[in-house]
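Predict the assembly for these two chains.
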Amino acid sequence: MTRHAVIAGAGLAGSLAAGYLARRGYSVRVFERRGDPRAAGAGEGRSINLGLSARGMRALAAAGLLDDVLARSVPMRGRVVHHPDGTTAFQPYGVAAHQILYSVLRRDLNALLVDAAETRHGVTFHFGHRLDRIDRDAPAVRVVDAATGAATEVAADLVVGADGAFSAVREQLQHGRRADLHREFLDWGYKELTIPAGADGRPRVRLDALHVWPGQAAMMVAHPNVDGSLTCTLFAPFEGEPSLATLDTPAAVRGFVRRYFPDAEALMPRLVEEFFDHPVGQLTTVRTAPWRHAGKVVLVGDACHAVYPFYGQGMNSAFEDCLVLDECLGAYPYDASRALAEYERRRRPHTDVLADLSVRNFVELRDRVHRPAYAAKAAADRMLNRLAPRAWTPLYTMVAHTTVPYADALARARRQDRILRCSAALAAAGAAIGSYAALRRRPGRR
Amino acid sequence: MTRHAVIAGAGLAGSLAAGYLARRGYSVRVFERRGDPRAAGAGEGRSINLGLSARGMRALAAAGLLDDVLARSVPMRGRVVHHPDGTTAFQPYGVAAHQILYSVLRRDLNALLVDAAETRHGVTFHFGHRLDRIDRDAPAVRVVDAATGAATEVAADLVVGADGAFSAVREQLQHGRRADLHREFLDWGYKELTIPAGADGRPRVRLDALHVWPGQAAMMVAHPNVDGSLTCTLFAPFEGEPSLATLDTPAAVRGFVRRYFPDAEALMPRLVEEFFDHPVGQLTTVRTAPWRHAGKVVLVGDACHAVYPFYGQGMNSAFEDCLVLDECLGAYPYDASRALAEYERRRRPHTDVLADLSVRNFVELRDRVHRPAYAAKAAADRMLNRLAPRAWTPLYTMVAHTTVPYADALARARRQDRILRCSAALAAAGAAIGSYAALRRRPGRR
């Protein structure tokens, strides 16, 4: 007997989950409030580019999609830090050759995932359909066609909420239950901007890296695109001086960029138009529990753990959810309740840690990247990693270039930090003992 | 021109706010989903009794209602702690005669507040009416009469959300905005039970105190009632062994009470019936921001800061909200936007601290009340307070018996704790120096 799944949301997590579920024999209907991501102009002007890293790659490989995705992406071998004085410094991501991230446009990747899922037997996508009600016990959903207003009841065996940080599935799943929800917004927003390719069609900056302009008043990152352009995301406080609220004239925008990202102004010929054309994006963190109801309703991606983009792990962790959910459904094929419980048990502690790490990385990018202590710690980390790559792996490397679960990575990084501090303390103590011994041996006491 | 206010919720905060707003010249319509609290049997079986303390009393006094309320309440001069071995100990609340709490039944108090508000010109209550939609910009609400299904649009100048921890007003006020929401549930629930008056009509335990059975596996509190009975609230984990989940037979319930509250079994002749008749209550903490929209929509009480009941401050802080909101509306009579901003500024930092204190007091009641260190600290606090009542006030005293804002009370308590610790350290250092001096003077070295 065919089992039926309904997925709310045809974003990255929803469309990848559709393919996985189809492979497990589910007939899958995906409902998405927005239009088809394959249509022209979809999602433009408000989407941080994505850096695909080890976790996301593993999940795409398991779905047989990795090669297709890599063909549309640009490898990033490290980070170019742009300093306020206009100088730049290249920091490789890791010491090993495979420690590479891949930059991909959200809409390209989304279109690819929808295409791939649609080729599977029994998968249909319904764009422009809003979820109106979810009966978590049936389970069943009522969807409304935005164009006609017609409502349809759809029964299923499994409902997957891949409907983002403001998930309607989560709302219904948790309604009236002892459900924890922690949702907070960063007081910084963002604008998408572009560094187009030069007039000669060649990139204006090196294309094999993520570009970062850290800073306390504002920061910017730029991801390379296959056409030689880069998509920039400018982050700044919503309010205060200077802030997104005060950047209300072309002169203000130009002056701001000139002051905080002096080398970037010349790279962005359409800066002012784009700044005023594009909406301001918001950044939110969501931690919540439970993620599931019996064996019937389950959440993936931002719906259960939205994170700030500063660790580049939002998509990667959402893909990892899909993979782990698939593994759990495979492990308990006749006990969906147990499968979903196991999925939440395996994922939630780790994505909660990821949320913390992503907040921390915002603070680090804003306040610490320029400081000597940060550089010293990073250098020590890199040196130890080079000397003993198995025994010593910096936290960033574990998060971005391995699939060690997030909480385990953090625990290991803390152990390493303690060792580093103890070594420093031992060295200091050794020096002190040495001085004391020298004092005791001073001539007058002999 | 008369200004119109709509209040969502006719609970304690909503009905007190109705009176305040009427006094400021508003015409007030209060909509409440549930039935009239003055009807027979309203709200039975799931309401922790309330301990009225200084903050609540000040707000009631300002509304001219304090005497009426005190006439229906029972003074509590301290806490009777019931130990697991069946012994009891009385701890007075404070050293001053006015340091008294007043126990009052929620439904009695609610009925009194509704009655009092209704006598004011322009106040109407509409029970059995559900808020269906809120237009925060108009502002206006759509209410549905639960009995007939008829919907009415009601326009207003000010909408007050006094609709509890799951506030619909909050939802609409914050929808699509950068609103922080932290909501979590305690993994313990509660059952309401009764210690009836004895056959001779006299109380079975002393009536001028709050009775507390602390404990790690379960705890219980009992508030006195004017009829000589006490309303008990038994708190226990939802799951595990033992827990509310495993108390599924009369024998299990009796065995549980006998084991953890040995002296209480004989006091509760209807224990088993009540245990199975009454629903399990849940306990939730809500921290959120913002509390307001322009000068149009504002939240009070649980809607903006639900707290656990373990500090006895839920109602008191809600009443304080109403008083501060009234003061702010009075201070800026022609600028509601500024009034609401000022209200949030004055209240939110303090209620966030109260949420923390209430969590802490749960842990304290559960884990520490029995420990010698706790008793020693409490004794030191009491002694110093007796010696220097102005300079030294224990945290509990400041929270319950003064109207010092919560965050200020906490800051002062921390300073006091530092002094206490420093004094102990100085004393220890003094003793050490003394020993060292004694050593130096020992005969062999002379």
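The longest strand of chain B covers residues 188-195. The mean pLDDT of chain B is 91.
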